[in-house]
Amino acid sequence: MAEIGGEANGIGRVLVVDDDQAVLSSLKFALELEGFTVQTYASGTEVLGDALLPGAGCLVIDYNLLEMNGLDLLDDLRRRHVELPAILITTHPNRALRARAAGASVPIVEKPLLGNALTVAIRAALADPRGPGLGMDAPTTH
């Protein structure tokens, strides 16, 4: 059976990690309207416990998680051989964070998430087999 707005339509799966339930709900709603299949996680620990991650399409990770930051979560996933493209979302990234994200080839999309910057970044991640966080240049979007 075809899943409306999901992988059956060839758009892709997006995993969103944010400890703010309001952000999770609004991103899930907005991204599903764009045709993505969305799975949400309220913590890095929750993501690390998901055995289905290797088959997913793209990670959208908040930098400021409670038990670990988003780049540390991504490092942990990479050590576990989960090689999904990733996008970091955060407010006011400082120079050190920008440098660390660029070093990991992870683009940053700044909050508040206005316009279509996140959707554009997700589509780019899903279109390139290397994707952001896997060798592509990491643009920062405001």
UniProtKB/TrEMBL annotation:
The keyword Transcription regulation applies. The modification 4-aspartylphosphate is found at D62. InterPro entries: Bact_response_regulator, CheY-like_superfamily, Sig_transdc_resp-reg_receiver. Keywords: Phosphoprotein, Transcription, Transcription regulation. GO terms for biological process: phosphorelay signal transduction system. The keyword Translocase does not apply. It holds the Pfam family Response_reg. Residues 13-126 form the Response regulatory domain. This is Response regulator receiver domain-containing protein. It comes from Faunimonas pinastri. The lineage of its organism: Bacteria, Pseudomonadati, Pseudomonadota, Alphaproteobacteria, Hyphomicrobiales.
